[in-house]
Amino acid sequence: MPPKRKNGAGDSKSQSKKRKKAAEADSDDSDIETEGNGGTFDYENNETSDVDILLEGSMLGGELLICGGTNWDLIGRKSIPKGMKNRGGPNLWAPHRIGPTKDIKMRTVVSNCVSCHSVAISSEGKVYTWGRNDKGQLGLENTDRMDVPSLVEGLSGMNVVDAACGRNHTLFLTDRGKVFACGDNKMGQLGLGHQSPFVATPTRVHYKGPPIRKVRCGGEFSTMSDIRGNMYTFGCPEYGQLGHNTDGKFFVTSNKLSFKCELVPRKVNVWIEKTRDNHVVPVTDVEVRDIACGNNHVLVLDSRKRVFSWGFGGYGRLGHAAPKDELVPRLLKNFEGPNRGAIQIHAGSAFSLAVSEMGALFLWGQTKSTGEAAMYPKLVHDLQGWKVRSVGCCNRSIVVAADESTVSWGPSPTYGELGYGENKPHSSTVPQEVKPLSGIYIQSISCGFAHTLLIARNDTEAEQEKINELPVFNP
Question: Given this model, what pLDDT does residue 80 score?
Answer without folding.
Answer: 87
